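#lab-general

N.A. 3:47 PM
ok so I finally got the sequence cleaned up, no stray characters, all 144 residues accounted for. can someone with queue access submit it? mine expired

B.Y. 3:52 PM
send it over

N.A. 3:53 PM
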Amino acid sequence: MPEELATTMSMQLYVFLPTAHLDTTVWQAGLDRVGAAVQLDPATDPASHPGFTPMVLRGQEAGAEMRFEDVQELTAGLENAAARIKDRPVVLAFDYGSALEGASAHAAAAGLIAAFDGLGWDPQWDLWFPTPEAALKVVDDLLT
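B.Y. 4:20 PM
back already:
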């Protein structure tokens, strides 16, 4: 993903999940397991506190906007959406406008993919992230 796009306009990243109950301890364990180098605030709860969510990424203060969206509305007209998302009826949206926020969003997504069997999707490039490693590759690309 070109950095200039991540710093000049609002971008989105979606993670399809089997549940909206995201235990931050489990999410952090997923981040740690895949080596995402992200520290979530233990009070992170996108269900009750949507909006900008601070985190620390590789020692830097960072974060991204998070909110839940309607999966049916998001995937209407998206070819093969049902086959891809399978038993993941919940979608957590990340919005970002800078490379650091984008890296934070993709790193957070890697933890969700690892901890909750999530599936990431970048609609700008129609890239799917079935593994944490796929999302972490974008983190590296954005921070270099």
